[in-house]
Amino acid sequence: MAGITNKTLGTLRLQLCIAVMMSLSLFFSYIAAEGYDFNKLATLAKQRYGDEAANDFLELQQLTATLKNASESEKLSQINNFFNQKVMFADDANVWGQSDYWATPLESLGLHAGDCEDFSIAKYVFLKAVNIPNDKLRLTYVRAELLENNRKVVKAHMVLSYYATPQSEPLILDNLIPQISPASSRKDLSPVFSFNDKGLWVGNSAKPKSDSQSNLSRWRDVLARMRADGIE
After folding, report:
1. Domain assignment of residue 11, yes or no
2. Do the beta carbons of residue 130 and residue 79 sit within 8 Å?
């Protein structure tokens, strides 16, 4: 140590400062890129829906923090379970007095109620929050075969699809069935079209047909309301 000159110490200090500044820069750019203001979400939840809703967002914040370094399969499982357990299925007519309303995650979790679109939107949003790439996720409209009053009926339904690679068979995250399953095992579902905040796909097409926001007014509207809530 005695042989280290002041010049050498100065160089080491400079290198350390640069390293710290670069780390801080990466940290803050990471936070900014994340784009989820949990403090704002919890505050709005408390104002609009009460303490329980605010606590749910704090719980969700802790969950997303713990999942940052988890495997993608663990992220899918935990986020899928969180919303399937916290939100009860309810028709838009009963919740919103409308035939079709796409709720933000703040609204769905705040009211602890939502329909298939609301489950799918919330899962999509918070899987992105734990760094699942956007191009691996699509909200998918399907024709679903359901059993009602001992007879089979076909209804419009929405699920969230996860593609490990562009060519992979998607995994299906659904509010009707809690287990995440490959699409091939869901014989009850027939895809119609899918989308995320970048594109829109028809059927099983591998290439997007068009921009989703210009073609889906309800999607464009809910994205704007999510941004107002603190989700970018």
Report:
1. no
2. yes
**Is 213 inside a domain boundary?**
yes
Residue 130 belongs to domain with CATH number: 3.10.620.30
Residue 87 domain boundaries? 38-229
In-domain check, residue 18: no
How far is Cα of residue 88 from the mean position of the Cα atoms in its chain?
Answer: 18
Alpha carbons 4 and 2: distance in angstroms, whole number: 6
Domain count, the chain: 1
Identify whether 29 is part of a domain: no
Report pTM: 0.82
Q: With contact defined as beta carbons under 8 Å apart, do 212 and 121 qualify?
A: no
**Look-up: residue for tokens 């967002």?**
57
Q: Is 112 left (phi over 0), alpha (psi -120 to 50) or beta?
A: left
What is the number of alpha carbons within 13 Å of residue 33 lying toward its C-beta? 11
85 and 115 in contact (C-beta within 8 Å)?
Answer: no
* Residue range 57-106, pLDDT digits in tens: 999 999 999 998 999 999 999 999 999 999 999 999 999 999 999 999 99
- Can you give the C-alpha Rg of the chain in angstroms? 22
